[in-house]
Amino acid sequence: MKKHTLVIVALAGFFASAPVVEGNPVGPPNGLDVNVINEVNAFVTNTSVPTGEQNLDVNGDIKVHEQGTVQVEERRVPFQNDSSWDDWAGGDIRSFNVDIPPDKMLIVQTVSISALVESGQDVQAQVTTQGAGAGGLSNHPILLTRQGTFGGLDLYVGTTSITSYATGNGGLLAGVIRNATTGNGGKIEFSVSGYIVDTM
């Protein structure tokens, strides 16, 4: 019984110092009892709390009630996109960008890049995601591996699983660079898959 008195005194001290919200009293009235504590617990935790003896555990102590869990269903819309250039047009870089609709975020899961270059040339690639709603900027180098020579051109390919977040216009960027400008080379392709979620 002494333990109950200490718990009730401690609770009374806590609620006496708690702020008062207009129309919703948070402090118990005089003559504090277990049922009043139940009502206060119901207000604080925003859950339905049993009254009377059900509010005591096997030792006779006042139970600590768990907060209710609010589950929000996240609506995921599958997303995939592929774009390409016919060749290098005498340059050393090809870039791709994906615009993300307003109030949406793209969660990137997989990216793939392939490029045909003049035999003997090297290629590197990088994917960047950005946007205020995505928490800043993220850069992901993509390892490209030479697959062989086809029609006199060397083929480089890389596929990587990542987790990255993009929002806004140009929220997802990919850059593919070769180490020379000699010849037009061949097709450069970028693919991405993931899903879109709401940000509002």
Could you explain how this protein is built, in words?
With 200 residues, the chain is mainly β. The chain has helices at residues 2-17, 34-45, and strands at residues 77-85, 93-98, 104-118, 123-131, 136-142, 145-150, 153-166, 172-178, 188-198. The longest helix is centred in the first third of the chain and has 16 residues, at 2-17. The two termini are 51 Å apart. Residues 1-53 have low confidence and may be disordered. A hairpin with a 4-residue loop joins strand 4 (123-131) and strand 5 (136-142). The protein folds into two domains: 2-55, no CATH class; 77-198, Jelly Rolls (Sandwich), CATH 2.60.120. The strands form two sheets. The protein has a five-stranded antiparallel β-sheet with strand order 1-9-3-7-6, with no helix packed on it. Strands 2-8-4-5 form a four-stranded antiparallel β-sheet, with no helix packed on it.
